[in-house]
Automatic annotation (TrEMBL):
A molecular-function term among this protein's GO annotations: protein tyrosine phosphatase activity
Annotated InterPro entries: LMW_PTPase, Ptyr_pPase, Ptyr_pPase_sf, Tyr_phospatase_low_mol_wt
Listed SUPFAM superfamilies: Phosphotyrosine protein phosphatases I
Keyword Manganese on entry: no
Signal peptide residues on this chain, from the entry's feature table: none
Record-listed E.C. numbers: 3.1.3.48
A Pfam family of this chain: LMWPc
Catalytic center residues: C7 (nucleophile), R13 (nucleophile), D117 (proton donor)
Keyword tags: Hydrolase, Protein phosphatase
CDD domains: LMWPTP
Protein name (Swiss-Prot/TrEMBL): protein-tyrosine-phosphatase
Presence of keyword Hydrolase: yes
Phosphotyrosine protein phosphatase I domain sequence ranges: 1-142
Length: 144
């Protein structure tokens, strides 16, 4: 299965989600490929936010080599599941969907709950890691 994690900047939440989901899938022996992208282009080409890199490293996951990129409509063809962090991401991605098949691939990682944007809140990175980790475990339960 191919999963794309999406947030606004692709430097805080979705890089964590990519790293955590790939780590958990590998550990579970699943042949899953996980990537991430953002809906905003401010940080394209750069690595993840150092606070996300640290939050992941603290839990033994290296996300430092990831490179920020923009979501592209062709991602609807490349991925089976597109997991967004909040309702604004959801609206942005659904606005780019071409048909019902595209729309059906898009879900919030936590179901009805959002993963809050930690960009302006240093103390939120560790709790956001935990939220995303819980969401990824649920996804594995659901789709493995
Ligand atoms: P993310 O957080 O969507 O979790 O990557 C953000 C990162 C950067 C900005 C906003 C949110 N920004 O406005 O630059």
């Amino acid at each position: 299965m191919k999963i794309l994690m999406v947030c606004l900047g692709n430097i805080c939440r979705s890089p964590l989600a990519e790293g955590i989901m790939q780590h958990l899938a590998d550990k579970a022996g699943l042949d899953w490929h996980v990537d991430s992208a953002g809906t905003g282009d401010w940080h394209v080409g750069r690595g993840p936010d150092r606070r996300s890199v640290k939050a992941a490293a603290d839990q033994g996951i290296d996300i430092s080599k990831q490179v920020c990129r923009l979501f592209n409509v062709s991602d609807f063809d490349k991925f089976d599941l597109i997991l967004v962090m909040d309702k604004s991401n959801l609206a942005n991605i659904l606005a780019m969907a071409r048909n019902a098949e595209d729309r059906q691939k898009v879900k919030m990682l936590l179901g009805d709950q959002i993963v809050p944007d930690p960009y302006y809140h240093d103390a939120q990175f560790a709790p956001v890691f935990k939220l995303i980790e819980a969401g990824c475990k649920e996804i594995i339960k659901q789709y493995a």
